[in-house]
Amino acid sequence: MLKKILSKAGFCGGLAFFIVFSASPFYIMLITMFKKSHDLFNPTNNPFILNEPFTAEHVKLLFTQTLYTTFLLNTLYVGVAVVLITVALSVPAAFSLARIAGRWGENLGIGIFLTYLIPPTLLFIPLSRIISVLGLQNSLWSLVLVYPTFTVPFCTWLLMSFIKSIPREIEEQALIDGCSRLGALVKVILPLSVPGIITIIVFAFTLVANEYIYALAFIQDSAKKTIGIGLTTELVRGDVFYWGALMGGALIASIPVALLYTFFLDRIISGLAMGTVRR
User: Fold this and answer.
1) Residues 35 and 124 in one domain
2) Which residues contact 42 (CB under 8 A, 6 or more apart)?
3) CA dihedral (121, 224, 154, 126) positive or negative
4) Do residues 42 and 159 share a domain?
5) What rounded mean pLDDT belongs to the chain?
6) Which residues, in sequence order, are CB contacts of 27 under 8 Å at separation 6+?
7) How many domains does the chain have?
8) Model confidence over 80-104: pLDDT tens digits?
9) Does residue 8 lie within any of the structural domains?
């Protein structure tokens, strides 16, 4: 009985620690967002509470003196476009490597994944030259063109492992029933791959929203910036950091991504778990 109580107490304690640890960044951003500047920069004040009455001056600065709403819309525009391109390329590529390519398909899949590991700091200079030649400098289309270079390899590798976990017999039965290879993909593989597809959609959108190097190198106009570079370039002016507005912008931008992970958590876990099953 004592062992059971201690085990349950340990589990609850660990869970409480994990909840506090996970929620603390959101709490810090929220509390900083509504602190007065005097409270925020006074080193003797407790940073975890409101030592003075809250203020909305930072929120007002964020929405009236920056193009914050435009940053969000640009990020959404680029993210949706990149997700569509990534899904359109990753699904047939993963299916071909998992089902058609044979024994060398796995080695090719590993090679594709290795391209994802190349640091962006090594690629943005030659990619800048390509973007310049194409006339896409200072355009959101430059990001739409470049971002799939690292979302497609990763998502293809992830989805390929997921498709391998689907029993081949299901697909063969569809072929026996008269489906073509494409028909088996559309009618059998894709419905069973929904958790994996949702996983790559969330991952691709998150990678795009968090990307900084390419957006900084390719975009100069404030009206065309995404949220990653928009906040840091517009709210860090010389040696002045507008921490309240920075934290407020980061909090507002992180809420949709957090909700996206929350709503599709079961699907994401299912996609990752099934992707680890090897036949």
Assistant:
1) no
2) 51
3) negative
4) no
5) 82
6) 48
7) 2
8) 999 999 999 988 888 888 777 666 6
9) no
